Please model this.
Amino acid sequence: DHYQSEALDHADQIVCVTDGLAKEYQKFTKNKHITVIRNAIDSSGLTIDHNVKKQYTFIYIGNITNQRQQPFNNFLSWFSSACKQDLSLTLLLIGEKLGDLTDHEDLIESGRIICKSAMKQVAAFNHLQQSKYALQLGAEIYPYALSTKIFEHAYFNVPTISLNYGGDIETLIEDHKLGHSINLKHLNKDAIY
Model:
């Protein structure tokens, strides 16, 4: 905390990407104006395919790290149960660190969960456009984080399903109708709904 206060107090300008992070920094500095410039997506060179066929129900692009495993486990528990009722559900995971899937090997073998290695962003965006919903996972210790995934999902008009613990991500999704925000603080820790 001491070093954070020192750095913030001696900064010429403080710029953050979320209001929540600005509030967090404000705890450590006095009389400093903090500017908020939100994350965004650089859409130059990107194309939207309006006629793309939706091949996947859900997609998650990225690694399951930085304490995102619990929200991911919540989703997988629900997904596993829902697959017994709806035989058409699929989940595409793109990344290098996709969490612990050992309890769901049957879903991988049956093609319900498809795992792909990390790929170029344009290729991942092509898969995103082929998905009905895109997942965003928030870590409880970072309620001020605002994932750029939200902006990518919105740009390609794919609704976000966010499992989070409140904060800026929840507000952004609700205010701009970008999908559904599921605040895990308000649920049983082992449940999704």
User: Anything to note?
Assistant: The chain has a mean pLDDT of 88.
